[in-house]
Amino acid sequence: MLDKRIVAALICVLAGRTAVSQETPTERDAARDVVRKLDSLERSLDLNAMVAKLTGPNAARDQVVARAKQLMDTDLLAMGDNITRHPEIGFEEKRSVQILTDYLKKHDFTVQMGTPGLPTAFVARYTKSSGAPALGVIVEYDALRGTKGAFHGDQHSTQGPIGIAAAVAMAEYLARTKTPGTVTVYGAPGEEMMPPNAKVVMHESKVFDGADILVRSHSTSATSRPAAGFGTCCMNIDGTKYIFSGAPAHQLTAWNGRNALTAVIHLFNNIDAIRSNIRPEARVQGVITEGGAAPNVVPDRTAADFYIRYPDEVYLAQLTEMIDNAARAAALATGTKVKIDHYGKDRDGISIGSLDELAFAYEKKFGATGVLPEPGKPQGYEETGSVSSAIPGVGFSAKTSNSPNHTYEMEQDALGPVGHQGFTVDAQAMTALLFDFATYPDFRATVKREFQTIKSLHEEYLAALRKVYVVPKVAEP
């Protein structure tokens, strides 16, 4: 679901750079005090010095990183190519999961298949180390749904191999040196089917409980990292279905029925009619998923599926109520009934400068291309928000394609030099950061302090927004 061009978030840039806040004028004004506090936090951490220290010469780290690269070169790039050539859409990834878990089992991980409601999810735990910290690696493997069939236009096919390379290399190091720590790989299906994202379901089922850090990778057309703060890649989302119920009749005597298709069309027209009253940063996007069965029968059931998006969750609540009312009005005007199903949501996550800057530095160190020098807007390492708001983590984004996400060209790049190079860089950088997290208590303390402070400021930010999003008072006629 990742589109780095569509981000909505509070942003505070690291020491020595100018702090930039949210993209809408209302949010920038409301968030002024929060931005100052975030800026003060980031300056106090002296992340430039920390990154320089951690990325300096370290023979032990380099040995573990070399092992991850060896695994990519000998086994895991080929595994990614295999999965790329056999795409499976979300929650149907049986072949891909079998390949990933078989490899983990061969490297001393025990695998538990499935979590509540997610048969193609898995949790793989390394068996030969123990203690803290608990290192977690999230991998995905689902393909996109396309008009020509499933395809890996987002390169999820190699997220698994990247994460496995880092997990195996770190697990072997912990066991060999008797360094305290554990490694767990979390297989997360159906990322492209959200919301609700499978990782939300896993989080609510407490699958990630106990993890001290979570890492993942994702394909991208440029090497980048977010700024510290809170936000999401794709705006806050309410996933909502509107199901209209009418009464069937012959189309020649349609007055004997109630047309649910007319109702759903009215919904779209109603939304278009109120767009001038919706803040311009909003995105309201829907499709008709059920429109009737035959032209000579008045449709008695139709449905539309919408992603309702806004940069923050406070105005999003108002916006969703407006769209709900547009659906109720459509039903009232057509003599039908509507069921409103708020089936999923994505909210702001937390990005941590101490993790993101170190990950970015390692990506450059190991040869990432297409480097964007300045950080983007904050976004949690997961689009879900819920996971990255509860557990510190980082996403790795070395350039893996010359084309945008969700394209056939990106799928082809997964099989070629630009993809293979970027995948290997991500595996090396992920391994190096996990090594530092496992072996430097001071680094872990910095991550914890930064994460907890940013998390506490999010509530302050939402409270400020609630004061400025005033609903107009409409007088009685």
What do you see in this structure?
- By secondary structure, the chain is α+β, with helices and mostly antiparallel strands.
- It folds into two domains: 333 residues, Zn peptidases (Aminopeptidase, 3-Layer(aba) Sandwich); 111 residues, Alpha-Beta Plaits (2-Layer Sandwich), CATH 3.30.70.360.
- The chain contains 13 helices and 13 strands.
- The strands form three sheets. Strands 2-3-5-4-6-13 form a six-stranded mixed beta sheet. Strands 9-10-8-11 form a four-stranded antiparallel beta sheet. It has a three-stranded antiparallel beta sheet with strand order 1-7-12.
- A hairpin with a 2-residue loop joins strand 2 and strand 3.
- Helix 3 crosses helix 10, helix 4 packs antiparallel against helix 6 and helix 8 packs across helix 9.
For the sheet with most strands, the description reads: 6 strands, mixed
The CATH superfamily of the largest domain turns out to be Zn peptidases
Class derived from helix and strand content: alpha+beta
Q: What's the number of structural domains?
A: 2
Shape: globular
* The top level CATH class name of the largest domain: Alpha Beta
Give the distance, in angstroms, between the N- and C-terminal Cα atoms: 45 Å
Radius of gyration: 24 Å
The average pLDDT is 93
How many strands in all?
13
Question: Which spans of ≥5 residues are poorly predicted at pLDDT below 50?
Answer: 1-21
CATH architecture of the largest domain: 3-Layer(aba) Sandwich
Spell the H/E element sequence: EHHHHHEEEHEHEEEHEEHEEHEHHH
| CATH topology type of the largest domain | Aminopeptidase
Strand content: 15-25%
Q: What is the share of helical residues?
A: 40-55%
